[in-house]
Design a protein that fits this description.
By secondary structure, the chain is mainly α. Helix content is 69%, strand content 1%. The chain has a two-stranded antiparallel sheet with strand order 1-2. The longest helix is centred in the first third of the chain and has 18 residues, at 87-104.
Length: 421
């Protein structure tokens, strides 16, 4: 005659809570792993029974486990294994081994016990994903990344949208050197959250970007844009722009366009940021814009007018900008009536630097009507100008027309527009 295991419900309800590994790159641990499933606490309770042959040995094992009798648990477990006749017998013995391992905080024994639970033939299908998730966590903490990957894959076969398993499979894959797959899995976790109408963790965006950038992968910029689109801040913009500057092999003009975006997004932070931008502007003939940039830094207490190198650069920009603004009207009229689009763009750039976006936009449009114009550059600068003036539809149209070497910075400006109301 078969009899239900004595005290099985209380045993299973105790479960096994495994802490998720903390990743510095996430800023916190990934979503906490659930406790081991408690089949006895579910509404539809599976009825586990032990065979008459194994009942005495299993009760003795349970007594030892409940008493935390570590000196005798191993022998009692071996004796129970020898008497086991059914899948339920094996399942209950494995559960008792699991409880003993949890009590002693022996993760190697816990992994073996979970594997025995899963191999018993009596584990409810609804519980398997949680067991595999816990098993994956143990293997990951033990740096057994191939075994961790296999366990997390088992979770996802049963629960494809399990975020914990998705993120941890990504980390396991990355630890095995499979960076591209790791990034794809993190992006999958982000997509799952978005599909559920929830905001993904910022650290997921940052982790995917960090992996891509470190591996010099071509998707770094798209990942950077995803991050700033979801979490626009001075910090995220600074990092995204710096990544663009690092991977883009920029000429002076493109560097200025990226630094202008940094100015708009509040991403100018250090003395080096301000000096590099202002010095480049002065050298390229935009002293008035350089003066304005430094004055913003002075007002925000990010740089000091009396400190080197600004105690030299600011007077230089001030001197060079004297009379410059007043001369633009005549220069612009002459350029617009000529046939050289580069001169027109240069005057428009100067108007942009002084914040006269209406005049700048007008001249960029004139330049776009001239033969031989660099349409990508002119559309980029027109889009930037319209973005600063508040013409979001016009800016979007101009920036979407940009291709070639200017395409990436145009996409960054489009991302900035998308974050504006």
């Amino acid at each position: 005659m078969n009899n239900k295991a004595v005290g099985l419900g209380a045993l299973l309800a105790s479960g096994l809570a495994l802490a998720s590994p903390a990743h510095a790159q996430y800023g916190a641990a990934p979503p906490k792993t659930a406790d081991a499933p408690s089949s006895a606490s579910k509404d539809a309770k599976p009825q586990f029974s032990i065979s008459s042959q194994a009942r005495k040995a299993i009760v003795e094992l349970q007594t030892a486990v409940d008493a935390n009798d570590t000196a005798n648990i191993a022998a009692k477990a071996a004796a129970a294994d020898a008497k086991a006749k059914t899948a339920d017998d094996r399942y209950i013995i494995a559960q008792l081994r699991l409880k003993a391992a949890a009590n002693s905080k022996d993760m190697t024994a816990a992994a073996q016990a979970i594997e025995a639970v899963l191999a018993s033939g009596a584990t409810p299908e609804a519980d398997k994903a949680t067991y595999y998730n816990n098993l994956g966590q143990i293997h990951y903490n033990a740096k057994a990344y191939d075994k961790a990957s296999a366990a997390f894959q088992q979770v996802l076969q049963r629960d494809p949208n399990n975020l914990d398993a998705t993120v941890m499979l990504a980390e396991s894959r990355n630890s095995l050197g499979q960076t591209a797959e790791a990034i794809t899995l993190i992006q999958k976790a982000i997509a799952i959250r978005l599909a559920a109408g929830q905001k993904p963790e910022e650290n997921w965006y940052k982790r995917a970007l960090a992996l891509s950038f470190a591996a010099k992968m071509p998707n770094s910029m798209s990942l950077a844009r995803d991050w700033v689109a979801a979490y626009p801040s001075a910090t995220s913009w600074r990092d995204a722009i710096r990544i663009y500057q690092t991977v883009g092999r920029l000429d002076d003009g493109s560097m200025i366009d990226s630094m202008r975006l940094a100015r708009v997004t509040g991403a100018l932070a250090s003395e080096n940021d301000y000096f590099r931008f202002a010095n480049l502007l002065v050298n390229k003939g935009y002293a008035g814009e350089a003066k304005a940039v430094m004055e913003e830094g002075f007002a925000a207490n990010k740089i000091s007018k009396s400190a080197s190198p600004f105690n030299q650069l600011y007077p230089l920009a001030t001197s060079k900008s004297q009379g410059d603004r007043a001369s633009l009207a005549a220069s612009g009229k002459a350029a617009a009536s000529g046939s050289d689009p580069k001169k027109i763009v240069a005057i428009a750039d100067a108007y942009y630097g002084y914040g006269d976006y209406a005049q700048a936009a007008e001249l960029y449009r004139v330049a776009l009507g001239k033969a031989g114009v660099d349409k990508d550059l002119a559309n980029l600068r027109l889009g930037m100008t319209l973005a600063r003036s508040g013409d979001k539809p016009g800016a979007t149209a101009a920036l979407n027309a940009v291709g070639g070497n200017q395409a990436e910075v145009a996409k960054l400006w489009l991302t900035y527009l998308a974050t504006k109301a």
